[in-house]
Design brief:
This protein is of the alpha/beta class and 276 residues long. It has a single domain, classed as Rossmann fold (3-Layer(aba) Sandwich). Helix content is 39%, strand content 19%. It has an eight-stranded mixed sheet with strand order 5-6-2-7-1-8-9-12, with helices on both faces. Strands 3-4 form a two-stranded antiparallel ribbon. A two-stranded antiparallel sheet has the order 10-11. Helix 4 runs parallel beside helix 5. The protein is globular.
Length: 276
């Protein structure tokens, strides 16, 4: 006698969390975590309640950038209390397994960690939960979309052809797993020297052209600026300056576009649900 097999549960919305935004790049070295952290702080500056999941399990850097590195408290029911840095709640493997010891694990363990970060952290009420993805198109992304419905994804690249090759892979990956792309960000776009000379380091404008090719929004560009790197290293991200600095204004403008697109995507999803 044949036995019917129960279907695996689909992604479940997290109570109290309005939007889950993934930030990916397809490759390392383009400043994806820098953009994710500064985006989160800028969203908070716009008045939103924000959290960050550092899903880059093998290379977790969010705690350093947010200036908080102590281990989180484990509460009743084995729930985890997130840390708070600059008004943003966050969790990272670097908090649970600090130091330079590398994380060596296979796909099923990664899946379990992502589920724990989503479901066993006391996030409370959030408008935006930003998920900093690892480079590549592997297990973490699959685990994420299997666990929770995403509002959309932000793809980060420099303007170089090599970086954009992998950014296009990330775009195709999100398409394959039915995640809307909120838009593209060009990081380290150009560099302005003290005398006003502008250096085109990686090919400024190429990411915007890619966005046009894919008929996707271009969210903005971030200049290459030592202050961004220095701020991240010291746990004082450049976006803390808000509209009083050039980089702060760039991140705020990107955050405003992310909010507009997220609300548009959510409204369209509600319309489809009502029609069906």
């Amino acid at each position: 006698m044949a036995h019917s097999q129960a279907a695996a549960p689909g992604p479940q919305a997290l109570p109290g969390i309005q939007h889950v935004i993934a930030v990916g790049s397809g490759k390392g070295g383009v400043g994806k975590t820098t953009v994710a952290v500064n985006l989160a702080i800028s969203l908070a500056k716009l008045g939103h309640r924000v959290g960050v999941i550092d899903a880059d399990i093998y290379g977790p850097n969010v705690p350093t950038m947010l200036g908080q590195t102590r281990q989180p408290n484990i509460l009743e029911g084995n729930m985890i209390e997130p840390l708070v840095g600059h008004g943003v709640k966050f969790i990272s493997m670097a908090l649970i397994s600090p130091g330079d010891k590398p994380m060596v694990m296979r796909g099923p363990m990664l899946h379990q960690i992502i589920r724990q970060f989503l479901q066993q952290v006391l996030w409370g009420e959030l408008d935006y939960l930003v998920v900093d993805l690892p480079p590549g198109t592997g297990d973490v992304v699959i685990s994420l979309v299997q666990t929770v419905p995403l509002t959309g994804a932000v793809v980060v690249s420099t303007g170089s052809s090599v970086a954009l090759q992998d950014a296009r892979k990330a775009l195709e990956m999100f398409h394959q797993v039915n995640v809307e792309v909120i838009g593209l960000v060009e990081n380290m776009s150009q560099m302005t020297l003290p005398d006003g000379t502008v250096l085109d380091v990686f090919g400024a404008g190429s990411t915007e052209q890619t966005a046009k090719q894919y008929k996707l929004p271009f969210l903005g560009s971030i200049d290459m600026d030592p202050a961004v790197r220095e701020g991240g290293d010291r746990g004082l991200p450049a976006s803390l300056a808000g509209d009083s600095s050039a980089r702060g204004r760039e991140f705020l403008a990107i955050a405003e576009k992310v909010v507009a697109r997220a609300e548009q995507i959510a409204a369209n999803s509600e319309d489809v649900f009502e029609i069906s």
